[in-house]
Design brief:
The protein is of the alpha/beta class and 366 residues long. The chain has helices at residues 9-22, 32-37, 40-49, 60-68, 86-91, 101-109, 137-149, 171-189, 202-207, 329-336, 340-344, 358-365, and strands spanning 4-8, 26-30, 54-57, 75-77, 94-98, 117-122, 153-159, 196-200, 215-218, 234-239, 242-246, 251-252, 258-259, 264-269, 285-288, 291-296, 304-309, 318-322, 352-356. It is elongated and about 80 Å long. Bound molecules: pyridoxal-5'-phosphate.
Amino acid sequence: MTAELQIDLDAITSNVRRFRRIAIGEIMAVVKADGFGHGAADVATTALAAGATRIGVTSLAEAQALRNAGIGAPILSWLNPIDADFRTANLNDVEVAVPGIEHLNAAAGATRPGRPIRVHLQIDTGMARDGATARDWPHLCRLARVLQDAGRVDVVGLMGHLPCADDPTHPSNALGRRRFAKAVRVARAFGLHPRHRHLAATSATLNDPLSHHTMSRIGAGLVGIGSPHLRPGLTLTAPLIFSREVSAGTSVGYGYTWTAATSTHLGLIPLGYADGIPRNAEGAEVTVNGHRRRIVGRISMDQTVIDLGPDPVPVGQRVTVFGGDGPTVAEWASWAGTIEHEIVTGIGPRVQRTVIGKQRALRAAS
Ligand SMILES: *Cc1c(COP(=O)(O)O)cnc(C)c1O
């Protein structure tokens, strides 16, 4: 018996279907960071079977892993150093985002004759992270046009990203939309008319139809983050591997940060911060036999102590950390002072993965 992360791919199916109803354009399934911790290939296969048409990742290595897993759909990779292996990317039909002239030149330099590399030009619509500034954008478009005419690149997309789309009242949303619209006009003036124009990720897709354009890039939403109408796909459980009765006054764990006020039973689970249980999740709870129980003492690297209360619980009892009958990932995020994304992407490699709903996705995909 070991700690187990159960991944329910039916949740992904349900979430993709919801976004297909909401989004005006196509759905790109963003499966970076191992599909937000849910398994990139499984999430991609499931999302495609449910109606997503394209896949998005950050690195070329992630794109390559998906190709190796047999995913044939178009894949876009948007975060690469200029010495990335664009040649192999092109060979494997992986599209790349280019945030500036250097990247565009690097990508074009890896093109084989007769096989232009497919690129998405990236405009900074307000993140100040990646993407060309408004000032550099015309230069990027001009060079892209020249390289396209020379058969070196094929500009298939224009992309932006919004920094505050989770707050529909934030003024940067309208500003980002205007910047994107202007960038599209400038690109057209240079003779670039790519099929894909994409600005919205999960929040913008949920909150702001004006941001949808021809495609939404959905990552968090695939795995149930972003709206209460979405379905979470993870359940993390661990067996009680030790249990004991202690008397009042017993202190627990490193640094003695908690002391039992009354006699109680303590249980131990083999999950710690190396497994993605945030060490600072003070007051966090788990579910034992249908009852919420508190984590007490310091969360260690490998193990965590639970105050089970006055009644003993047998060793072997499964404890739900989140999902299922346990707390939600959102509760854990608030206990740890973070966002759900960090919790779901942080579960460590020691935790055994069990995938359910997979056969359905595979049947639908074949
Ligand atoms: C991660 C990412 C996305 C997906 O965002 P979600 O909010 O998780 O849907 C989309 N676009 C870019 C550029 C990203 O980095």
